[in-house]
Amino acid sequence: MHGRRLLTVVAVALLLPGGAAWAGVEQSKVVSANPVDHTPHVLDGIVNALAVVGRTVVVGGKFSTVQNAGGRAKLARHNLFAFDLRTGRIDPGFRPQMDGPVLSLAPGPGNTVFAGGSFSRGLVRLSLADGSPDRAFTAATYGGQVTSLVRHGPHLFVGGDFNRIGGTTRIALARLDAVTGAVDPGFHVTPGDGRGGETTVTAMAATANRLVLDGSFTTLDGLARPQLGVIDLTTGRVADWHTAAYAPECRKAFPSYVRGLDLSPDGRYFVVVTTGGPAPGTGKLCDTAARFETYARGTNIRPTWVNHTGGDSLYAVAATGAAVYVGGHQRWLDNPLGADTAGKGAVSRPGIGAIHPVTGKALAWNPTRERGIGVKAFLAVKNGLLVGSDTTRLGREYHARVGMFPMR
User: Fold this and answer.
1) CA terminus-to-terminus distance, the chain
2) Domain that holds residue 53
3) DSSP readout, 202-223?
């Protein structure tokens, strides 16, 4: 995600044995509310994306300076840097020069990482050894930026608001060969009729046989799919899965209001988070988190549950099996009656919270964070939950723009 998590399994000992793309990392319990002390600090800007390759965490966003925890030296890093997951030490050798914001990341083959955003070329594969671009990967984008990346076995799904990639016309969505960057001619699903004048894929997640995507579109291959759709990867076609839940408009300022999404570790359900402004009593899914069943079929599929913030945006979500973590600049959860107020039953969850995956109600976990713009990136790993944002207080401690909640 803006605010998306990268949702494929990474072939590393710290996560899960790799190969197939699978939804998320399963955790058996809710993480601690006390962040670890060793994560580095990003001293300016915002963190938009996180990825893990081996034991290396790659951090992307819009920033210029980072610092080791407990250190004094300020290190120049332009929109991308890496640190060791176990120790938190910033990698001194990984220093790519990104001339624009990084919005999305995904692990690449070998010791590499894919980065997408609004920088030159829009999409690159970088060596983790020194940050140099791999010239064998030829898939520059044109006409827009890359906002979402999902590694899926030998392929890489790319989403954004571009109109060409690798010399081939593709509107907002493409599947590439993860090694060469060649556009896959066998996959050509086209989002259309973008709300607000743009067609954009904002966030994506994949199981072995499904790709879930949301964004500023109303159709996929001409089929009505307002802001949310599912693609059957066994056929390469739009799945028999339709919801009108995001067809109603929220506020005029938000013609498209879906933001992050994440699949459960078993792929059976996914959760979408939104912005849009308060809309109590209307049934609209503005400023909400909503669960949907991945393998439901038919038209007018309804969410299994909806949790309302009551007037504040959610940008990021991570489903781990034990919890659905949500982040943004929200003040409350369980607040369907709120209109920028705490309605009856609302619970305080400033900037970050957790929802029970079955009941859809807020869990007791409440570490708090300085709200700011909000959480833009979550990444669940075997031993915790990584968080990327734009503020410096997480779990009542100083953690500038990057933090990690460990397993209890």
Assistant:
1) 26
2) 41-406
3) EEEEE-SSEEEEEEE-SEETTE
